Amino acid sequence: MAMSTVEKQNSERKEVVVIGNGPSAIVLSYLLSGHIPYWNGCPVSNDYLNLKLEQYVKDNSLFEQDLEFLSDGLEGRSRNPVSLLIDNLTHPDADLGAHLQSKIKWRHDPSLAIDHTCLGRGGIGGVWNNLSSKQLQTVSMAHWMELPNYPMNTFRQQRRAHRLRLAIDNENTSTIDNENLSLRATYDEVRSYYIHYVKRNRLTNYFRNGFEVTLIERAPIDEPFFDDSSGEIRIPESLWKIRGYEESTKLPFTIYTKYVVLATGIPQKTTIPLGIIGEQASQSFTYTCLSGIENLLVHEKRLSKNSKPLLIIGCGLTALDVLLLCQQHSIPVLHVFRRAIDDHELIFNQLSSSLYPEYEHIKELTKLSTSSLSDWSYQCCAQSEIISITEDGTVHIRNVRTQSITEYEISFVARLTGAEITNPFLQSITSKSKHGLQINPYTYECIDFENMYALGALAGDKLVRFLQGGAFACAVNLFKKTRQTLSKTNSSLAVTCRTRIA
User: pTM of the full predicted structure?
Assistant: First the structure.
């Protein structure tokens, strides 16, 4: 099908297109821009891995290694072997509670850079761009949130020093002096770190933020040609065609690329509806994301300790973070979730009480069912479900164990029950495969789609700590493929003359 005039004006060609602008995309861009990793020669605690590093890696680039061989036998909290390999080198003995220096050193060779661009919704950081809380902290340790060759603690110290200088200039050091760098970072620190990381490593030109991708499909872009060297008519390899629009202007764009990398995280745009009576009528006072709820509680200050309770539905991390905000601001809470309090699937039953005392405190409160502390009112309805919510803020809750129904008056609703994947381009791709996106664990290339890769949550790595391994495996494979293509092109130019077929 011929391209329209508008599409022609907005189409271009790229060697690699990365869909996403979060941590996975940032790490991959860092690698593709010519940053090459080497083992620094320091031993690791895994004797088998250490032996392989000493005998086979030595002073050679890690990009030149057999990743399957190096990662063989490693165990840990990721199902992907290369993620475990890179985690062993970047976060040695992390699962033992250690915070040791990385075993990787970096060299920058701009001549090795691969032409690429990263397309993402919103700003740098992906989902982290929308998490700006200066009070809530990440579940992971602060140094697990860092990206290659720039420690999170270095950034936090530099940021604190900069704020201290500003405070001294303004003769207001009281808030800075009392700050300590905790083991876990705030959402705002992580968000700022990713934005600064892109600027610091001069990756800004590789990112196009505020771009919505709507379609990815195979699209031949060239005509058949006669290959003089073989005497055969050849059909050029088809490219990936990526279509979408810029969020601010709504102008469409089309990009053709040989390689496409899906680094979108878990696309979450629409929260799963409850399917209850009055759900539509209660939309005006229902919130479904942390940033909106934080704005309601902290910035607009529309609730106080004397308000009717905020109804929180769900018991995942976001719900617990909202609970923490409510506790900090003495806002009464009515908390409803379907699981039993001792269910191991609940997140607060999976976290260490010593590392996460605030979540442990919430866990203890849920066991009391009703708690009226000196400055906070909390009521828990475990193993319960919402039956209806009226327009005037009356909610009916049924205990699924006893089937008893109770009526409450509420102020607002925080519906935090998970989200549906709404990326149409992702659905169009997976619909062509019976098994969804299956990846090669050593290259992260999609098994059913040549020259398409999937990183991060799409590949099973949901913790930032393990994202580097996927980007690393993908980059290694892309470097090998582009090198082979360049070699073939140079050979072809020496012996081949293309004759176009009319």
Answer: 0.81
